[in-house]
Structure formats: structure tokens, C-alpha cells
Design goal:
This protein has one domain. Helices cover 76% and strands 0% of the residues. The chain has helices at residues 3-26, 35-39, 45-78, 82-115, 121-156, 169-174, 176-179, 181-200, 203-213, 228-235, 243-249, 256-282. It has 12 helices and no strands. The chain is mainly α and 283 residues long. The longest helix has 36 residues, at 121-156.
Amino acid sequence: MNSTAVRLGGLCGVAAAATAIPAYVVGSPELPNTPEKLAGYYEKAESFIAANGTIPLIHLFLGIVFIAVLVAVLRAAMGPEPAVYMAVIGGAVFIALTAAGLATEVAIPAVIARFGDVIEVGVVRPFLALSVWLYHYSQIGSAIVMFATSYAIWRTQVLPKWTAAAGVLGILALAHTWLGLPAAYGTVAWMALMGLVLLAFPPSVQAKEAAVKRPAKTSEPKKAAASPVAMLASEDGADVVPPAADAAAVPTVEDPVVIAAAETVDAKLPTESTDADDEGSNK
């Protein structure tokens, strides 16, 4: 994965964390614990829909992109390890149940804004209770993502090793049932932190820098020395004979041409000596 895609995922993580804050500011479904607070929870239905319905759509979209890029980075560093699949499943659980909780929580103000009806308190309670438990379960998925990411960073150092310590925020996420909104802020903080890390330290850039600092040693195979036959052939302007073909290029004693030439020389030698003797006797 190139550094541009990693930085884009990091930017989406930061933006996803930022777009989650308005939903927390406008209210949390576990806070209304009396009929009076419950009746006033949806006083401004239009603003509630914007903060807890429309903006979270952007939060979910950006969160999906962030989780996808993060999982791709972990997958490239670790391979098909269980931690990678834990991050995938945990991210899917977190996104899906968060979306369900937001939809459940915003259903009542959407009815008020659309039809202008006055909703009784008894109707509101089941929706708020359901959204609360959906958020509880969604934080289990976020905790799994945090733990799996920290383990992968600690094992592979695909990101700076100190970022593995951010996994302690997963403990807050697991305690969402008892802590409520503060635990949700811990998840948002983790998302923003990991997004900033991906922006500042994309793994592919680190790999390129390491390659520049430690260039790989390449050993070139030694060229075989040219044989005398090949050197002579190259000096004469002929094609260079490969070393493996030198033995075949040099004539041997068993060559028929060599044998014929030797027989010719042997046949001439006695004749030449006899002729020389005759000339000496005549003188």
C-alpha cells in the first residue's frame, strides 16, 4: 500500500473522531434517568437530528475507510494472522452496532420533526434503552480493534512501537457498560491518535527510508575468463567462441583431416631423403 492511501486513511480517522463529538455533546441516552429529564431530552428535535443523525452519517463513512486502511496496513505487516481478522470483525461490529444505536436514538426526534406529534414518555423509554445497549455492545468491537492493533504494532513495528500503548484505551471501551460516555470518549481519542500516526508515519515511507539507509548488497556473478581460442578469434574479428565450445572448436588428433595430413607428411619424408641420397652419389 502506498503512502498516499495510508495518509488518506489516517485523515479519515481524525475526521471520524471529530464528527463523533457533536453526538456526544447533544446528549447521551443513558443520562435521562427521570421522567422530567426524559421529557426534555428531545426538546429541540431538529438540532438533535442534525447532531445525532446527519453528522454521524459522515462519522460512519469515514470510520469505515479508516478501519479498512488500518486493517490493510496490519495485513501487509503480519500476513493472515488472527490479530488481523480480529481487527476486521471488531471494526465491523463497532460500525454496525454504532449505526444501529444512532438510528434507534434518532427515531423519536425524527417522528416529532416530521409529523409534529407529541410523543409520550412511555414510548421514548424503550428506544433510549435499546440504543444504550447497542452502544454497549458496539464498544466491545472497538476494544477488540484496539487490542488487535496494539498487538500487531508490538509484533511487527509497522507503526512506531510506542503507539501500542494506546491499546489500554480498550479497557475503557470494555467498561462502557459502567462508565458510559467517558468510555466512548476514549474510543474517539484512540481513533484520532491512530489517524494522526498514520498521517505522520505511513509504513511505506518508513520502508523506503530504511531501504535508502541500508542499501541491499548485490553480488554480481563473476564472468568466466575467455579462453585463448576465444581471445584469438576476437582479435581476428571473428565471433567470440563461448568457453564451452572451445574444446569442440580445437581440432584433435583423431580428426580425419589431421590424420590425412599426417599420412601425407609421412609419405613425403622417405621420398625426399632417397632423392637426396641419389643426388649425392651421382656427384
